[in-house]
Amino acid sequence: MKYILLVPDGAADEPLADLGGKTPLEVARTPYLDDLAKTGLVGSVQVTPLDMYPGSDAANMALLGYDPIKYYTGRGPVEAAAMDIPMDPKDVAFRCSLIATDGKTLLDYSSGHVATEEARKIIELASQKLCIPGMSLFPGVSYRHILRWSGGPVDVKTAPPHEHMGTLLADIYPQGEQETRLRKFIEDSINLLDDLPYNRMRRNEGKMPANTLWPWSPGRAPQLPLFSKLRGLTGAVISAVDVVRGLGKLSGLEIVHVPGATGYFDTNYLGKGRAALAALEHHDFVWVHVESPDEAGHAGSIDEKIRGIENIDKYVLGTLLDGLKKLDDFRLLCAPDHKTPVATRGHAIGPVPFLLYDSRRAIAGGGHLPYDERGEQDARVRIPEGYRLIDDLFRGD
Question: What is the pLDDT of residues 311-327, one digit of tens each?
Fold first, then answer.
């Protein structure tokens, strides 16, 4: 028996007037998901606790079966784990996003999805000029980087930049422990980076500058029980983003790297599907995460969100299903980690639809709902604690 967890990040949405009151998931052509829903169970799950921000870090932790109330410490340390950044007990890691501002307002959370090689040069310069003793900057992918701070603050409120585009910086500056030091770091980064030749060139080309470093979601290294010990199974994770790879590393899953997997609209969907099949040849479980619907939601693009969902269905799920016919019986769980409504361009609190499928038989109580937000609204099965959902994947043998 093989087990698959498929996470179309942020695929769930709200009804849109431009789509005649439907959602992107309703409108998207998803023949493979539609077929699975005929004999599978479509239900509703509250992935993260209602009093917790529905970030991809805590939400994917829950989907993997770890209670975020018990294990979540922050996004920074999870991404640091993915990047193999050593963390002492006193170290605090922040996600440090390279964002675009005009000095007063947050313009873009990704600096127009700045290229990784260009971002690396900026982070290297900032590391030399901005870091006080105990601070270190580590370059990541595109706009996603890490600030490690020995003895740094954890009791500080920070703002996810993707939730605050168009907001005054003064309204979302860090508040709490070491807030003055963090604010100085941000303002010094603007002074250092804003007038770089690279950013002058980007402005001349009509692009967003990569001119501000924004630390957020700090924490110390979490301690997760190994997935293999909890489930008695071996597993692998396939994702282009550090937050998911970090959770995989912390839980002892094999990290599978797919060439051309970017975490954006142009990601290698087919490569992910093929890599998942290959992983299942020597593992019992594979977790496949695809970021593109979430990025489309943050971009406010209905078309890209629909296209991303359709590509996941055709190239990731379709490739998996075709190959699994020759490999083994399987159970599959598909669930977004949260909603990323196109209208608001941020994450939204609330339940999302899940689909549970067994290749051997129809699942009792299933088959009456399509896999979209109608499953969230009309579901007979509702899971109030998201970290328990994966238990259903491993039941039924």
Answer: 999 999 999 999 998 87
Are 17 and 118 members of one domain? no
- H/E stretch holding 339: none
Same-domain pairing of 65 and 101: no
Residue of 153, 189, 154, 149 whose CA lies nearest to 169: 189
According to DSSP, the β-strands at 106-108 and 91-101 are: antiparallel
Any residues with CB less than 8 A from the CB of 81 and at least 6 apart, and which?
87, 221, 246, 249, 250
Residue 51 is which amino acid? D
Q: How many domains does the chain have?
A: 2
Phi, psi at residue 336, to the nearest 5°? -70, 155
Residue range 368-386, pLDDT digits in tens: 899 999 988 898 899 999 9
**Whats the size of the chain, residue-wise?**
397
- Whether 105 and 166 have beta carbons less than 8 Å apart is answered as yes
Q: Are residues 231 and 212 both part of a single domain?
A: no
Global pTM reads: 0.92
d(CA 134, CA 181): 13
Q: Which domain holds residue 373?
A: 2-72+224-393
Please state, as a whole number, how many other Cβ atoms lie within 10 Å of the Cβ of residue 387.
24
Q: For residue 314, tell me if it sits in a domain.
A: yes
